[in-house]
Amino acid sequence: MTDRIRPLVGAHQTRRPLLSTVSGVASTKKDMIRWFDRSTSIDVITTKSFQVTPNPGNREPVICEVAPGDFGNSVGLRNPGMDVSLPELEKLRAEGLGKLLNVSVSASNVDDFVTLVKAFDHMADSIELNFSCPHAKAGFGASIGSDCAIAASYVKGIRQAYPEQKSALLVKLTPNVDDIASIARGCIDAGADGIVAINTVGPRLYTEKHSGEPILNNALGGKGGASGAWIKRKALECVSAIRREIGDGPLVIGMGGVQDADDVKAMIEAGADVVGIGSVFGTIRQQDWPGYLDALKRECGALFEGKEIAGDARRLISGVNRMEYTPHVITRLVEHTPEMLIMELDGSLDCHSGEFAFLFVPGLGEKPFSVAHNDPLTFLIRRRGFFTTSLFSLKVGDTVYVRGLYGKPLEASSSRNALLLAGGSGVAVLPSLCRMLEPSHAHVDVLVGTSASSVTGLDGKALFEDWFRQHADSYQAIADDGKVGRVLDHLAEHVEGKDDLKAYLVGPEKFMAIAAARLVELGLSRDDIFLSLERSTLCGIGLCGECVCGDRLTCQWGTFQNYGYIMDNARELLE
Question: Helix H segments across 249-311?
Fold first, then answer.
């Protein structure tokens, strides 16, 4: 055990409020680990569970919210594998990682666990063996941790194969057993330095309330682990039983349903040296996470001193189910081209630039999309993979489920001139930009680049051409005609001679990178260029950490970021 982690042992006796992120939530990407390290008072940062080889996990949906603060999940151990994750963590260490780093690993045999422990040992303060994932494939996760003899044999095998390990060896256990305390005792006796508990409860089946159909998409028929407020009582019972069984010596990281200072205090009193904070991050804006963690520590300390608290941490929790679906009926479908579908739904959505929504079809999956028009609610679907291809087979009258909005409206200062540039299906974002700019009375130029096959479609016109000609001051659609990005050759004529100009770019990241660099060459300030970074996201509420851009989650801060911020904080996205 490293000297850095040894002081944590026994913290439950001194009643020090020490906090940790939990595996698979928020601190899942290297940039988010860096952000937690530099911007929050968290004490231990836990990675997602890494495996020897990459694992694509389950198709979306993989996270659902049943009631405010009550979640179901079935990510399926999605991770990039050891060869990608190890260099990223080594880079973070080289930069000077200040907080304790707990690296979670997952495998289906002792040899692979040994490989992972050896690989991460030199840069981890502790390594967490995932013996607990309830929706992992056979041989992984809970199939190990549900049997005391198997769990103990894995720990013993790792210790024997790699006795020189310097980081602490922790075991994360599943609550879905009859006697978690005995399993914990078996792991400690076999050589583990501590226990992490609990992982999710279940698996359970979660159904969408309007259709009655399963939400999660996996081989278990939609079943997934339960996390959040509704497993708090079970978590406290398990942590208390574990501490009684193993005594005060081993480290215990306790988690499950922790939301406010009272919960942190209860978890410490149950025997946790460090308290894990997980699903509650999905109920709080990322902008408020630092203040929330500060309040947890401050208020928990006050409770132990017998003082009254104001409940500052609790007030930052939204109390609203942000993942609830609303059914919409398809009223119109237009195949603009074989690769591009315009889908109109009944009802409306008050979406602004920088925001997005998820489309969900039970049994097929879900993905995030920009809203092209609010009324009628219109989405532009580009054929990319299984889910988007499946949407092409829907018919007028079918029901699609929408959740959101996510992100944040773009707050751009007004200017006399505005250039709206889109590549490909990025054109779907431009109508909302036009609407956003209307109050400023800016002169709006719309410039769209597209492949030759999709310049014309319905009525021989480009996508939304009539709308742009009515709402923009100028409009031009330019086909690639064998040269990818030909539209960028026309930037100068839309920039030169125009002062007080701001540019808004939408499209593939490589396309935007080239466009932004050329605009700077033409005299625009980096801070007057805004790029729509529609990053991959699994949840939209901050839990998965997938949509990180620099130190910001776009599902929290909005998809639009200015070019200066991106180049200073997330340059690799444009390289």
Answer: 261-270, 289-304
Tell me what percent of the residues of the chain surpass a pLDDT of 90.
78
Query: Is the pLDDT reported for residue 342 higher than 80?
Result: yes
Q: What is the mean pLDDT of residues 486-509?
A: 90
**Residues 406, 540: Cα–Cα separation, whole Å:** 6
Measured CA to CA, the distance from residue 542 to residue 42 in angstroms comes to 17
Q: Is the model's pLDDT at 145 over the cut of 60?
A: yes
Q: Give the dihedral sign, CA 495/382/464/401.
A: negative
- Round to whole Å and give the CA distance between 516 and 292: 36
Checking if the pLDDT of 2 tops 90, the result is no
Query: Strand 355-361 relative to strand 365-369: parallel, antiparallel, unpaired?
Result: antiparallel
Which alpha helices (DSSP H) does 255-409 contain, by range? 261-270, 289-304, 312-315, 386-391
What is the distance between the terminal CA atoms of the chain, rounded to a whole angstrom? 40
Q: How far is the C-alpha of 156 from the C-alpha of 188, rounded, in Å?
A: 10
Alpha helices by DSSP H, listed for 5-147, are 11-14, 30-39, 82-95, 110-120, 142-145
Dihedral angle sign, alpha carbons of residues 102, 107, 109, 114: negative
pLDDT in tens, 41-59: 999 999 999 999 999 999 9
Which residues make beta-bridge pairs with 170? Answer: 128, 194
CA distances (Å), origin 77, targets 130, 132, 133, 181, 340: 10, 11, 8, 25, 32
Phi-psi region of 69 (alpha: psi -120 to 50; beta: other; left: phi over 0): left
Q: Locate tokens 């009643």: which residue?
A: 15
Q: Which helix (H) or strand (E) is 468 found in, with range?
A: helix 465-471
SS3 111: helix
State the Cα–Cα distance between residues 282 and 318, nearest whole angstrom: 9
Report the distance separating Cα 264 and Cα 280, nearest Å: 12
Torsion angle defined by CA atoms of residues 277, 281, 284 and 289, in that order, rounded to the nearest 10 degrees: 60
Query: What's the gap between Cα 544 and its chain centre?
Result: 2
- Strand order, beta sheet including 223-228: 63-67, 70-73, 223-228, 201-205
Q: How far apart are CA 423 and CA 421, in angstroms?
A: 7
Residue whose entry in the numeric block shows the structure tokens 């914990």: 184
Cα→Cα distances 45→20, 48, 51, 306, 539, Å: 6, 10, 18, 29, 21
| 148 belongs to the catalytic site | no
Tens digits of residue pLDDT in 353-374: 999 999 999 999 999 999 999 9
Contact call for residues 501 and 525 (beta carbons, < 8 A): no
CB-CB contact of 324 with 65 (8 Å): yes
CB atoms under 10 Å from CB of 466, counted, come to 12
Largest CA distance in the chain: 77
Dihedral sign, Cα of residue 559, residue 563, residue 566, residue 571: positive
Q: 255-269, 429-443, 449-463: which range is least confident on average?
A: 449-463
| Among 133, 148, 238, 555, the one annotated catalytic | 133
Beta strands in 235-376 (DSSP E): 251-255, 274-277, 326-337, 340-345, 355-361, 365-369, 373-374
Q: What is the pTM of this model?
A: 0.93
For residue 84, give both structure tokens. Answer: 């990608």
What is the predicted pLDDT for the residue at 420?
A: 95
Res 140 pLDDT > 60:
no
Residue keyed to tokens 């398990």: 238
